[in-house]
Structures are given as structure tokens and as C-alpha cells.
Structure prediction request, 215 residues.
Amino acid sequence: MAVRAAILRHIRVPVMPSLRKSQTWSLLNSLRSMSSHGDDHLNKEEVIDRVLSVVKSFPKVDPSKVTPEVHFQKDLGLDSLDKVEIVMALEEEFKLEIPDKEADKIDSCNLAIEYIYNHPMAG
Amino acid sequence: MGGPKPLSGMQKQVLSLYRGFLRAARSKSPEDRRQIESIVSAEFRRHSKLVDRKNFLYIEYLLRRGHKQLDQLKSPDTLKLSSLSLRNLKRP
Prediction:
């Protein structure tokens, strides 16, 4: 947050007075992705919470079974089509596009959490 | 079902097609999207039970047909799956 405030302070003044709001916003976002583990990078607890809540809200999943260690097929009885749906729901939750090759590997909450936590664009 | 096995190349192609349909559905209105998702999901699940997993020729045919339907769905003119040749989706 301190970083963002500092950036904002710099950008606002006469540097680029003609910037429209949307341009400022995209500039901020690109700055943000450059700071690898800055203050406003998603912290791990938040990633875990949001991944678990996406998985729990999946209709075929018993929410009481969902933990960070849970395996989609072995523990939750999901098939490969379900897995595609869950990974796509995670894409939307974190505003990412996960390529097929990576998506095929994500078969547990743990892997999903690691992948998203290490993704620089996750938001 | 046994333990998790690595996916075969053909399974990956099927999953990739499924992903393609779900991505294409995102670009439609929320109502159409829900309808598309439920039809697509039902079709994939129906075939997953119906089709012998060793029937590679038939699965390849389904993959080709699916890709054609996906291309149609991706067009901004296609609002709903019902405007696709859905009758062809049913088995003869």
C-alpha cells in the first residue's frame, strides 16, 4: 500500500496531466506486476482462502471436505471434466488465463494455490 | 476408477476442446452463457459414458466435429448453441 501511495503521488502531478483514468489504471497495473513481491502482491492466505472458496462453491463438491491439501480426483471424486471447470472458475476468480499445459497439471488445491500464488498477474 | 493416471494425448485434446467451449461461452450474455455451458457439459458427459475409450476413430471424428461447432460458436453472430446444428449432436 505504501508503494502504491508513493507511485500515485508521483503520477498525479504534472508528469502526465493528460492521462485519462483508464490509462492511469493500466499504468499502475503494469507497475504493480513489476514489483515481484511488493506490498500489494496477493498474500498466500488470501490465495488459499479464495481458492478454497471457489472449490467449495463447486456444485459437486462437499464443502466440508475441502482443505488446502485436498486432491480433486482422489479426495473429492471429481473427473477430468470437473477439473477443467474448476480451473476455469479459478481463472475468472483471479483474472488469469491458464494455458492448457499448466491447467492439465493442476489436480489439487495445493497445486492451484502454488500456481496462482507464483503467478505475477494474479489479481 | 483406480488412481490418477497421466492423461493420454487424446484425453488432452478432448479437455482442450471442452476448455475452448467454456471460454467461448464467456463472451456471450450471462443467460446464453449458462445455457451453452449446460448443453456443452451434458454433451461431453454423455459421450464420455457412451463412447468406448478405445474407439479412437470415432473420438477423432467427434473432436473434428466439436472443433467445427466451436468455430461457429466463437463467431459473434452466434448467440446461442441452439442456432448451431444441434440435431447433429444427437447420435443417429
User: Anything to note?
Assistant: Chain B touches chain A through 17 residues (CB under 8 Å). Helices of chain B lie at 9-26, 30-50, 56-74. The two ends of chain B are 29 Å apart (CA to CA).
